[in-house]
Amino acid sequence: MRGNWRRLWPLVKTMLWFVLLALIGRQFARDLQRPELGQRPLHAGWLLLSGLLYELGQGFSALYWRHLLGHLGAHPSLGAALRAYYIGQLGKYVPGKAWALFLRTSLIHGHGVGIGLAVLSAFYEVLTTMAAGVLVAAVLFAMLGTDVGAGLTTETLRHLLWLEQPDEGGVQRSVLVLLSILLLVAFLVPLHPTIFNRLALRRTGATLASPDQLPHIRFVYLLEGLALAAAGWLFLGASFAAALRGLVGADWPLFDVRTARLPAIMGLSYVIGFIVVIAPGGIGVREFLLTLLLTPELVGIGGMGSEDARAVVVLAVLVLRLVWTAAELVTALLCRLTGRAAAS
């Protein structure tokens, strides 16, 4: 059975690549047909910078994953870990979040990393990165948030659950901080080494000759991951700022409290998109939250009113998705080519 699977695996990988490219290409085709693209000039240099900052931000989580593997006894090369991480990112465009982990673990297997350890470490890294996103959101919203918008009421919660814009437009900092803290706790509970190690042992212990064979997560590994991933989220916020500059031009201030809030907006929106399992890559959910949270930030920029600001935000979110997806495809292709060169 294993022999048949090994023979079929190259064909399965090739088919999976075609499926991923087809899904991403279809989304690109739909986005490029949006009429808003022709309404504003796009500054290519800022968009290129946005894509570069995005991939650099992702690199912090990739480095943490490699460090975590090292802590747990596996030592893949930096190139192998980065290739597995960046190519694996394409799996998030397939419905269900497991494809990204499946791609990553299959690519790192054979570089001194067993399948079980690859799955365990990748899963832990993903949850840690999401926890860092809402941690950044909680801190920045608490420090820099505003009290303008919908407050903490059942009506606000109803609007958010149904992905509807509240009547007041934006959302007050108390709502955003509370939501970020609740999500942070939800991630930190299973990430705590005591709980995570017990869950991992219960899941895999039956297949081990001795429970001591299972590597144990330590609390310092979690702290390291939160620090590295938090730095990555700051880069993602900078990427968003560059995309806005490429769309709005000099009217968007780079050194302003609005730019400082972007990592929080990005972190909260991205994490909520992540936990909605049926949305591949968080598409739809993430865009709604970005539009909700970013629209108040553009009111007054270049004399824009609320309606104009919302229209610009919709375009900005669309452009950001295109830029990030293109950056992921280019990076994955480069990783693929360098991987073949290293193997030859």
Helix-strand layout with pairing:
Elements: H1 2-32, H2 44-71, H3 78-88, H4 98-108, H5 115-144, H6 154-161, H7 173-191, H8 193-204, H9 219-248, H10 257-260, H11 262-275, H12 285-298, H13 306-343
Distance between termini? 29 Å
By oligomeric state, this entry counts as: single chain
Mean pLDDT score: 80
Low-confidence stretches: 205-212, 277-282
Question: What is the CA-based Rg, rounded?
Answer: 21 Å
What share of residues are in beta strands?
under 5%
Outline the biggest β-sheet: none
List SSEs in N-to-C order. Answer: HHHHHHHHHHHHH
**How many β-strand runs?**
0
Percent helix range: over 70%
Number of domains: 1
Tally of alpha and pi helices: 13
- Which descriptor suits the 3D outline? globular
Structural class label: mainly alpha
